[in-house]
Amino acid sequence: MEKKHLVLIGNGMAGVRVIEEILKLTPDAFHITIFGNEPYPNYNRIQLSNVLQGKTTVDEIFLNEWEWYRENNITLYTNEAVAKINPQLKTVVSSTGRIVAYDELIIATGSSSFILPVPGADKQGVTGFRDIQDCENMMEVARTHKKAVVIGGGLLGLEAARGLIDLGMDVHVVHLMPHLMERQLDETAAIMLKEELEAQGMKFLFEKQTSVILGDDRVTGLRFSDGTEIETDLVVMAVGIKPNTQLAKEAGINVNRGIVVNDLMETNTPNVYAVGECAEHREITYGMVAPLYEQGKVLAQRILGLEVSPYEGSVTGTQLKVSDVDLYSAGEIIDDKSTKAIKVHNEFEGIYKKILIRDNRVVGIVLYGDTKDSTKLFRMLVDKEDVSGKTSASILDSGCCGGGQADMSVDSMPDTEIVCGCNGVSKGTIVEAIQTKGLTTVDQVSSCTNAGRSCGRCKGIVGEILAYTLGDSFDATKANKKTLCGCTTLSRDEVVAEIKEKGMMSTKEVMNVLGWNNEEGCSKCRPALNYYLGMLHPEEYHDERDSRLVNEKMHANIQKDGTYSVVPRMYGGVTNAEDLKKIAEVTEKYNIPLVKLTGGQRIALLGVKKEDLTNVWEDLGMPSGYAYGKTLRTVKTCVGSQFCRYGTQDTMQLGIDLEKKFERLDTPHKFKMGVSGCPRNCAEAGIKDMGIVGIDGGFELYVGGNGGTDLRAGDLLCTLKTEEDVMDMISAYIQYYRETANYLERTSTWIERVGLEHVKEVLQNAEVRKELTAKLDRSLTRYTEPWNEALKNQQIREKYYKTEEFPEVLV
Ligand SMILES: Cc1cc2nc3c(=O)[nH]c(=O)nc-3n(C[C@H](O)[C@H](O)[C@H](O)COP(=O)(O)OP(=O)(O)OC[C@H]3O[C@@H](n4cnc5c(N)ncnc54)[C@H](O)[C@@H]3O)c2cc1C
Ligand SMILES: NC(=O)c1ccc[n+]([C@@H]2O[C@H](COP(=O)([O-])OP(=O)(O)OC[C@H]3O[C@@H](n4cnc5c(N)ncnc54)[C@H](O)[C@@H]3O)[C@@H](O)[C@H]2O)c1
Ligand code: SF4
Ligand code: FES
Fold first, then answer.
1. Which ligand is located closest to the Cα atom of residue 181?
2. Fewest Cβ atoms nearer than 10 Å: which of 6, 259, 284, 699?
3. Ranges for the NADH-rubredoxin oxidoreductase C-terminal domain (predicted)?
4. Sign of the dihedral defined by the CA atoms of residues 647, 650, 653, 654, in that order
5. Can you tell me the distance from the alpha carbon of 25 to that of 130, in angstroms, rounded to the nearest whole number?
6. Mutation pick for ligand 3 pocket among 639, 688, 696 (CB with most ligand atoms within 8 Å)
7. What is the structure's pLDDT at 306?
8. d(Cα 504, Cα 500) in Å, to the nearest integer?
9. pLDDT tens sequence across 110-138
10. Which neighbouring-strand residues pair with 94?
11. How far is 383 from 363, CA to CA, in rounded Å?
């Protein structure tokens, strides 16, 4: 029977969780298509606060990598919004005009930042805080500007403000109300919070209504309704969110504040469901993941036609992700005549607890400074437990654990106690997973049960449960260490050491011998193992093409619309009439819609159809420029002494020589070079992984530069006299990076991790340099030209360029 087609609009946290639930229950039930308006795979939005606060990086917050979509046969269109739903025809139309039919449709479009409708809100330097782009914008402004104002003293505003302080900005939080987080905290707790944040350097303006954003094109300040003003270079609006409902509304689906759904997450339109922040259930829209994941579970079962208990709404608990602030709040916060409060205010230790009780049931919790009891109290609140027989001490006292705290015993904790509030995972579920699946690390528990996979605060208690369940066999170092991926308990370094020691020669062998808990591996470990094996055994290892990331497998970059780009090699960015003619002829012959000069001084042909790829390569007769690979991308050069009056060195020739030497070499991440003939630096060598700058009588080598997301100026590694010295030093440097970096770690991150001084010290040793260079030279012998290989090898052509083996994953 033909599989039904399930379409998901919104590649975010709630929508993709529904797909995960469906795949867990019945993996082959649907053909699945996902449209996402952002150019990334599904990521953990919650962690954006930690990205801004420098506790993690964007690379580390992806919940599902590109390969996950491919492995699960999901067609993914990223950077492509759905513009219209046509319920009569059961189709959706995207912003590019793509029409996709559905049998079942899930709308999970989330929310947008609410931007105050005041004059000047569209000026440069005014942003919301909702996605990676917003986060990057703020980080960019912080590099060049000093003053920031965050409007809104709620959860988001305070987390943003803390991040901007960490980025070195002078931050004011402008709040409408007389105290912070008025929806979650009472006055006492809010004052304690304010004092702690002031001690951390945050400044506050209370009871201020912004009336105008000042400045010409760019923001320079704010004016308030009382006539006062404040100067600023950046304004972050954190005044709440607005569910994205327009699409549903235009399709005639019932919309109130959110898209109205019933207890099965059905809208009023047949076969159309809504989930997440865009959905309104019993007149409530939620803005935290826990309820959205509960909705997701129900929806997955409903869509699969399984027996399902309806979603009846959620009570949520809140915590703030700011260092040294420990607070928790759930339910009601203000006491009145109908409630009785248990209050503890220990000013000396900075602890405040307030439990509100009505009719012998806990109806509200506010904790500041000590949140150990939050889980226990939250359970009492949700279960509406009768507390009439209890004393205030026994209600308040930490009988067991919770709140992500790891300093209390877990044995007295009931199995039903929720350990991970975000994902609704109980102690019993975690214990069972540890026992039945042989789990020994927190990461493994996370991938198995989802506990810890969202805000991450419960990881401490998950570690405690591991220790308690494993008893004597628990190994604390192992439990908390960063493993290569969830398939193994070994770290990257341990895996590499084992491969070396045991002489393992294939990814399968590594997985078998090292006891991978998933025999096929996953999208994280397979490309990493393929890289490490090739790096360690350059002569003997047979590259496993199917273990590579998608673009490397195809030797072409897949584009937004499912076509590919072709970028031929042009050594040193130098071309000639013959190559240009070939490019022009191919462009005409295959109707290639766009020819574009790239930032790396190459010519990209964009919009090549998959079936034309090999013919285009054949007609071009040029080598691949590897614009898709974790390898040397380009060596950008200036014209140097051959033409320029200021040129001190022949940069073009050096660039060509470098590119010819290092092309195709596998590196942990992409590697870019630039060669400039003088410090004017026309080839932008200062923002390359390796930048070479000609000076009188020699060359300066700059390393760890990055012109992309993690903008970083290169550090001076050394000054050398001859081109030969340059070649040698670069060889040794690249090989040291290859051997010590984690797979997918750019040099800009690696150099900060291992330290410039350390790298200098290693490379100063002539013997070590010689050894590294020799190993690199051996590695370079293993590569062949991939386009040519595809042309000669019928099997490769059939497998990768003719069949529809892979669904489209548009990255
Ligand atoms: C900085 C920050 C910190 C947070 N911290 C916490 C926290 O500590 N705890 C907590 O529980 N929650 C937290 N949240 C809230 C949590 O991230 C959200 O509740 C959750 O992400 C909502 O999931 P969603 O799938 O409904 O929406 P989203 O994750 O926003 O996903 C919706 C996706 O749909 C896409 N989209 C919209 N329209 C279209 C269209 N027409 N076509 C295609 N795609 C479309 C959007 O681009 C987006 O990628 C935080 C949020 C932020 C911004
Ligand atoms: N730790 C967490 O759980 C966490 C962290 C970040 C974001 N989030 C979620 O993200 C969403 C957005 O967060 P948020 O803090 O923007 O929303 P929010 O609605 O919780 O808070 C907005 C705050 O802005 C204030 N405000 C409104 N208008 C204002 C004005 N004109 N001037 C000054 N202040 C004004 C309000 O009084 C309120 O305190 C929420 O759903 C939140 O739950 C959660
Ligand atoms: S970097 Fe110096 S040598 Fe090269 S083109 Fe610019 S000015 Fe000329
Ligand atoms: S409590 Fe947030 S991930 Fe577990």
1. 2
2. 284
3. 318-380
4. negative
5. 31
6. 639
7. 96
8. 7
9. 999 999 999 999 999 999 999 999 999 99
10. 82
11. 10
| 236: exposed, middle or buried (Cβ count in 10 Å: 0-12, 13-18, 19+) | buried
Whether residue 403 is predicted with pLDDT greater than 80 in this model: the reply is no
The CB-based long-range contact list for 477-485 (8 Å cut-off, 24+ gap) reads: 478/440, 478/441, 479/440, 479/441, 479/442, 480/441, 480/442, 481/441, 482/443, 483/441, 483/443, 483/444, 484/524, 484/525, 484/528, 485/521, 485/522, 485/524, 485/525, 485/528
Ligand 3 atom with the shortest distance to the CA of 649: 3
- Rounded to whole angstroms, the Cα distance separating 77 from 31 reads 14
Q: Dihedrals φ, ψ of 526, to 5°? A: -60, -50
Q: How far is the centre of ligand 2, averaged over its atoms, from the C-alpha of 713 (Å)?
A: 36
Its sign, for the CA torsion 560, 563, 568, 574, is negative
pTM of the model: 0.75
CA distance 137 to 189: 32
Ligand 1 pocket test, candidate residues 106, 277, 319, 323, most atoms within 8 A of CB? 277
Pairing mode of beta strands 603-608, 564-566 = antiparallel
d(CA 590, CA 612): 7
CA of 182 to the centre of ligand 2 (A): 10
Rounded CA separation 452/443 (Å): 8
Buried (b) or exposed (e) across 380-400, using 16+ Cβ within 10 A? Answer: bbeeeeebeeeeeeebbebbb
Tally of CA atoms within 13 A in the half-sphere of 330 that contains its CB: 24
Q: What angle do CA 408, 411, 412 make, to 5 degrees?
A: 85
pLDDT in tens, 717-729: 999 999 999 999 9
Long-range interactions of 43-47: CB distance < 8 A, separation 24+? 43/132, 44/13, 44/453, 44/454, 45/12, 45/13, 45/130, 45/131, 46/13, 46/289, 46/321, 46/422, 46/454, 46/455, 47/455, 47/456
Half-sphere exposure of 277 (CA within 13 A, CB side): 19
CA separation for the pair 35, 435 (Å, rounded): 38
Lowest mean pLDDT among 357-361, 456-460, 561-565, 665-669: 561-565
C-alpha span between 513 and 519 (Å, rounded): 11
Closest ligand by atom to 277 CA? 1
User: For 769, phi and psi rounded to 5 degrees?
Assistant: -60, -45
* Dihedral, CA of residue 579, residue 584, residue 585 and residue 590, to nearest 10: 120
Ligand 3 cavity residues, CB under 6 Å: 638-640, 644, 646-647, 676-678, 680-682
- Whether 162 shows a pLDDT value over 80: the answer reads yes
- For the sheet with 99-101, list strands across it: 82-86, 91-94, 99-101
Strand partners, 302: none
pLDDT tens-digit readout, 455-507: 988 988 999 999 999 998 888 777 777 888 878 888 899 999 999 999 999 99
What is residue 359's three-state secondary structure?
coil
ipTM comes to 0.93
∠ CA 195-366-348, nearest 5°, is 45
Q: Which tens digit of pLDDT belongs to each residue from 181-194?
A: 999 999 999 999 99
**Taking phi first (over 0 means left), then psi (-120 to 50 degrees means alpha), and beta for anything else, what does residue 694 get?**
beta
- Of the chain, the end-to-end C-alpha distance in Å amounts to 31
Cα radius of gyration rounded to whole Å, the chain: 29
Tell me the residue type at 229: E
CA pair distance 524, 529, nearest whole angstrom: 9
**How many Cβ atoms sit within 10 Å of the Cβ of residue 803?**
9
